[in-house]
């Protein structure tokens, strides 16, 4: 790791202190799974002293075809959980409820953007998942095969995941906002044999051309033999004979019974790509048993799920939040899960609040970036709605600033609903630091305490000999996790060395999260954002490298450096510094062209907010771009930090000229 983490930490201590504190409402605690801070602390202590007994207790609440022989096998950084056990997460999400008392309970309550509503009971979900699992088998898809999923938010997307898991196929969901190149990179990285997609999906009143984008990617995806297309909107699409198949034709001919395959606890469940500071996106691999247990237990305790809840997580299934907290966690709990297809501002800014009132949503889980947008749109879009069904609110994806937290509490939660600010990552698979709503007092802007079994610490950056220590309470440092946990990613698909190097090398013996944090006197954690070159735009992680690579791929661009700068709405915005190939004069038209280019190469979420042309980029003598200086310039319009390691001091003057020019 370069000097970046230390640079990032300089500012950590200056963060404003927040001393408001909100104990759990007595009414809420009375009916909660975990009812008091004492109960949390006792259970937490036990779970840390003997994590294996703790997690085994949780695992026993689920269905195993065969119980494990050993809870944990740990050979840093390689973990195996519930070794020797046989499990199927699809069985636990569906069959366990469909064959029991929840057969007629609504499993998925879906609202399309145009307004239509579909309800699938657990029994119906059972049928649909089995039929589609049989369709996958007919397509020649076997246990262990990788299957890409590129869909909009329809019940069929959840069905596709559950059907893959049922037969042991490994899904790799690609967010529907990604462009053809990004699809091809991901599909090729894990050699997917098939892609499941849909014709188009609705978003903000227009249609997203999912199938057409897959068609564009296909020439670059030699391993894909079949494309399965779910008909959502009925818009015309081009079907290639022998390669493309309609979902409805396949299931019409498929038998209705497909028993869930007993899978080894460590059988791969999915690959999900996320951004790192360098290189191509990493395909994090999650496996079966441990992932199931922790997504199950965190959903149960953190959302305090009760039988009559209507639970809504607004995340797209294209991200890890959708995997763990739209599909696997809540369904394993037998919850009623609301899924909404479209945008929060269609047909107007009140859509979410209308959905909450119409469907009597009780638990609402969203992202700080969405909350900031609601604040900006204004309370007139909220005031007409009762929101009295709500009993719990949650956030995830980036730090939430205390004022947004307070707004969320007052305007949406009417000062009645606890807020769970949940910290976790694609790599951790499930929540790690989070309030337990009936037990832990909350503070605006703090993710509060570690979940059971999770040993989180804030430490100094290791010196050259690898020595480091825990920082005193109140000081900033690197957030690490000491011990393995069940839902941790097992590796980076196809690149175990990179997994080891990225997560288990910077702080010897620990998992390094890439985040800075501090702990207050009460033991509450305050997350301070990334300390590496990852940008968090609207809660979505982007590596600076990815955007830089896309820019450099443009024929007029010589070199590019990308940094994040604070943005009121998105959390971070993307600022790009670009040097041009000679003979190409800088112009506003070229700025626009480059922004469009990046959107086309990666997807709209990676579109740079600012582009600055410069004659040169600041580099160290070893040739590393000094992003720290660019970050300062993009944020404050000037550079005050240490520039002694610069190779060429005139660069700064040139950058300033670019800034003014
Ligand atoms: C950030 C999303 C502060 C953090 C589940 C982390 C947060 C990255 C929070 C993971 C939170 C997520 N408070 N920061 N409650 N939740 N983050 O992989 O920087 O998309 O490392 O997983 O988001 O993003 P990812």
From TrEMBL:
Q: Name one GO cellular component term.
A: cytosol
Q: What class of enzyme is it?
A: ligase
Enzyme Commission number, as recorded: 6.2.1.1
* PTM notes: Acetylated. Deacetylation by the SIR2-homolog deacetylase activates the enzyme.
Residues annotated for ATP binding in this entry: 397-399, 421-426, 515, 530, 541
One GO MF annotation is: metal ion binding
Q: Which residues carry this modification: N6-acetyllysine?
A: 624
Residues binding Mg(2+) are 552, 554, 557
Q: Which GO terms describe its biological process?
A: acetyl-CoA biosynthetic process from acetate
Q: Where does CoA bind?
A: 203-206, 321, 345, 538
Looking up Pfam families in the UniProt record yields:
ACAS_N, AMP-binding, AMP-binding_C
Q: Which CDD domains has this protein been placed in?
A: ACS
Q: Which InterPro entries match?
A: Ac_CoA_lig (IPR011904), ACAS_N (IPR032387), AMP-bd_C (IPR025110), AMP-bd_C_sf (IPR045851), AMP-binding_CS (IPR020845), AMP-dep_synth/lig_dom (IPR000873), ANL_N_sf (IPR042099)
Q: Which NCBIfam families does this UniProt record tie to the protein?
A: Ac_CoA_lig_AcsA, PRK00174.1
Please describe what this protein does: Catalyzes the conversion of acetate into acetyl-CoA (AcCoA), an essential intermediate at the junction of anabolic and catabolic pathways. AcsA undergoes a two-step reaction. In the first half reaction, AcsA combines acetate with ATP to form acetyl-adenylate (AcAMP) intermediate. In the second half reaction, it can then transfer the acetyl group from AcAMP to the sulfhydryl group of CoA, forming the product AcCoA.
Name of the protein in question: Acetyl-coenzyme A synthetase
Q: From what organism does this protein derive?
A: Occallatibacter riparius
What is the name of the gene encoding this protein?
acs
């Amino acid at each position: 790791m370069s000097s970046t983490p230390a640079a990032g930490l300089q500012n950590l201590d200056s963060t404003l202190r927040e001393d408001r504190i909100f104990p759990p409402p007595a009414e809420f605690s009375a009916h909660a799974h975990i009812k008091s801070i004492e109960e949390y602390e006792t259970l937490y202590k036990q779970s840390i002293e003997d994590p294996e007994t703790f997690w085994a207790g949780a695992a026993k609440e689920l269905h195993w075809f065969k119980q494990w022989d050993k809870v944990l096998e740990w050979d840093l950084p390689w973990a195996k959980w519930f070794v020797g056990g046989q499990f199927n997460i699809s069985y636990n999400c569906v069959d366990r409820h469909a064959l029991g008392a929840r057969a007629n309970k609504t499993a998925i309550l879906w609202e399309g953007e145009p307004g239509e509503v579909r309800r699938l009971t657990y029994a119906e979900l059972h049928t649909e998942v089995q039929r589609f699992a049989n369709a996958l088998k007919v397509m020649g898809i076997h246990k262990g095969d990788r299957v890409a999923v590129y869909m909009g938010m329809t019940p069929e997307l959840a069905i596709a995941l559950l059907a893959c898991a049922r037969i042991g196929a490994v899904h790799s969901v690609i967010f529907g906002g990604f462009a053809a190149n990004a699809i091809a990179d991901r599909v090729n990285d894990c050699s997917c044999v098939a892609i499941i997609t849909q014709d188009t999906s609705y978003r903000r009143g227009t249609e997203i051309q999912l199938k057409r984008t897959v068609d564009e990617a296909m020439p670059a995806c030699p391993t894909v033999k079949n494309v399965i297309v779910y008909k959502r909107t009925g818009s015309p699409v081009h079907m290639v004979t022998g390669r493309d198949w309609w979902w409805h034709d396949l299931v019409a001919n498929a038998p209705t019974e497909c028993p869930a395959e007993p899978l080894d606890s460590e059988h791969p469940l999915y690959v999900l790509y996320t951004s790192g500071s360098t290189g191509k996106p990493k395909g994090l691999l999650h496996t079966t048993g441990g992932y199931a247990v922790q997504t199950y237990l965190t959903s149960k305790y953190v959302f305090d799920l009760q039988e009559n809840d209507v639970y809504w997580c607004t995340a797209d299934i294209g991200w890890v939040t959708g995997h763990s907290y739209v599909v696997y966690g809540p369904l394993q709990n037998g919850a009623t899960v609301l899924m909404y297809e479209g945008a929060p501002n269609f047909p107007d800014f009140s859509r979410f609040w209308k959905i909450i009132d119409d469907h009597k949503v009780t638990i609402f889980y969203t992202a700080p970036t969405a909350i900031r947008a609601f604040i900006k749109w204004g309370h007139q879009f909220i005031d007409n709605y009762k929101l009295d069904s709500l009993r719990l609110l949650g956030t995830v994806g980036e730090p939430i600033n205390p004022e947004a937290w307070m707004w969320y509490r007052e305007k949406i939660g009417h000062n009645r609903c606890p807020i769970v600010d949940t910290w976790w990552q694609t790599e951790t698979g499930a929540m790690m630091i989070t309030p337990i709503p009936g037990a832990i007092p909350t503070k605006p802007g703090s993710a509060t305490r570690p979940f059971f079994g999770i040993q989180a610490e804030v430490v100094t950056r290791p010196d050259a000999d690898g020595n480091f220590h825990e920082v005193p309470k109140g000081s900033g440092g690197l957030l690490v996790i000491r011990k393995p946990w069940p839902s941790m990613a097992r590796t980076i698909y196809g690149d175990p060395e990179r997994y080891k190097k990225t997560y288990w090398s910077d702080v010897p013996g620990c998992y390094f999260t890439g985040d800075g944090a501090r702990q207050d006197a009460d033991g509450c954690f305050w997350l301070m954002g990334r300390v590496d070159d990852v940008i968090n735009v609207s809660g979505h992680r982007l590596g600076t490298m990815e955007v830089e690579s896309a820019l450099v791929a443009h024929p007029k661009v010589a070199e590019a450096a990308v940094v994040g700068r604070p943005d009121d709405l998105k959390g971070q915005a993307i600022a790009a510094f670009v040097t041009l190939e000679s003979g190409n004069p800088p112009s506003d038209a070229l700025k626009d062209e480059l922004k469009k280019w990046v959107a086309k190469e990666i997807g709209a979420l990676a579109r740079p907010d600012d582009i600055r042309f410069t004659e040169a980029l600041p580099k160290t003598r070893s040739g590393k771009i000094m992003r720290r200086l660019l970050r300062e310039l993009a944020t404050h319009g000037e550079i005050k930090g240490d520039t002694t390691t610069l190779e060429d001091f005139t660069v700064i003057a040139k950058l300033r000229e670019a800034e003014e020019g």
